[in-house]
TrEMBL record:
Keyword set, alphabetical order: Hydrolase
Organism the protein comes from: Streptomyces amakusaensis
Lineage: Bacteria, Bacillati, Actinomycetota, Actinomycetes, Kitasatosporales
SMART domains named among the record's database cross-references: PepX_C (SM00939)
An example Gene Ontology molecular-function term: hydrolase activity
Pfam hit, one: PepX_C
Claim: Translocase is one of the keywords in the record: no
Family per similarity comment: Belongs to the AB hydrolase superfamily.
Presence of the UniProt keyword Hydrolase in the record: yes
InterPro entries: AB_hydrolase_fold, FrsA_esterase, Galactose-bd-like_sf, Xaa-Pro-like_dom, Xaa-Pro_dipept_C
Xaa-Pro dipeptidyl-peptidase C-terminal domain ranges (all copies): 320-554
Protein's UniProt name: Alpha/beta fold hydrolase
Annotated coiled-coil segments of the chain: none
Amino acid sequence: MAVDTPGNPFALSTDEIARLEAIREALKDPSPRRIGRLDQWGLADAYETYAESSTYSEVSITMDDGTVLDASLSVPRDLAPGQSLPTVVMPAPLIGIGHRAYLGMIPRLTLGGYAVLAYSQRGLAASKGEIHVAGPLDVTDATTVVNWLSQHDAVDSERIGFFGSSYGAGTSLLAAAQDRRIKAVVGTSAWGDLFTSLYENGTRHLKAFEALVELFGEDRCSEEFRGIIQKIRANTIDDEVREFARVRSPKHHLDAYNDNRTPILLTTAWHETIFSVPGVVDLFTGLTGPKSLLVQVGDHGNGELPGLAGLFSKPTEMAYRWLDHHLGGHAGDGREPRFGVRSEYMHNLLSDLHHADWESYALPQERFHLSDAVAGERDARLVRGEPQADWTRSVKATGQGTEVVVAPKLVQTGLVERMGMPHVYKTAEVDRGLAAIWTTDPLERTMRVQGEPAVRVTVKPEEKEATIVAYLLDCDPATGKAAIITHAPYTLAGEQPGQAATVTFSLQPAHYVLAAGRQLQLVIDTHDDFFADANTTPSAIEITSPQGAESYLDIPLDAQG
């Protein structure tokens, strides 16, 4: 799995690869020449201090079935007789360099009084074996790693925590559900429910799925996983697929976390395109022990990337505090961790809001009714007040979408968005034959969307099956340009062609501030390359609002304080 594979949304830059390799060489051989190479990134002093007080070694750990995992161990020097340390275990994210992705964090943790073991799960990077996608064998491996560590004189087996990003977050959370020795967990860019990350409202997240499969490398996957890959590609979402996802979903292990009162810190992003944000929120909400949730601007992995490189990031700074508080090290800034929900809003990276829980975080819903278009206008209105019935809007399914999409590029669009440059959607130029659009009047004051919007519409396709995709946008009426707030797909399967069905579905959670004068805009079309749609092409889909089941959009909306 090369880290620079063309099209790889998780690819590291040449400079990032060079920096990590230079760090690795300096850790293995802390000579003045090796450490001096780090000066070009401003890291020489930090690693010189680390080399004087710590040891780093690359090790192999043999699993119960003989599979050998590649790992590294970092331990402070000159421990007093009998002294033992809190320990952080770091399963690798899904990247070709495996556990070396954490090289930038290891000195900070070790200087903070921790023993640190980072490892690549079976099948990843230099580790042997096949990839099981955080399956039961990977969980058993995590326990074997803890057993191996517990034999080390410097390791306090009563103070072991796990930190993982992305794939490593899933491994960390699932290991903690099975091994009571794990006393704290940090999962950045985590997943809570693997099934909803693959299959949302009857719709496959095929683009993200194929990107992950490419990163895994099918030739390294287990026979079980290769079978699941083929079923998902063929849209055979049966009990085997559901069970495969269930055992790999931390959300389904809540009893274990709550019985153990495992302290869990989770992070995700508002425009996450890889793992389901509602799944992470559901996991967080179901936890009854010490817990914290951070939601940031951007996409998968964007928030913690600088921190993994040894720079500042909210996720890693929160992780240091979290581990210090629950394990007793001193890698953080000495401040207590924040429990509850911590969030940024679009597109302000400096925003930092705190709520005790998700219930107090989410705003009450305000209902906007979908109306018909006024004579002479091509778009309809989102209106407050009375339900709007007895209208029909028709959109064509051609297999081609509009320019309104979840994200032009997985991960990378969110990274640019995190830099303060959200993608611009020219909704004034959208083909109204391919999409139906509803728009509010210009907002009289600054408003905020905070929580989970929901849509109800009645859908009547020409064929048995149909897919629609709903997008909520922030539109500038002066230019017709917009930015995406949130989205969701919905696929319905009728018993016969032309059968109408009223469907209600939630959009992804959002935290977005709209300036006065802007308009909320709901766009519904039939195709987005991010999803696998079920539409027969060409065909038509009617969106209607019958008496008694009028269409609406519920938005968690309030004036910005």
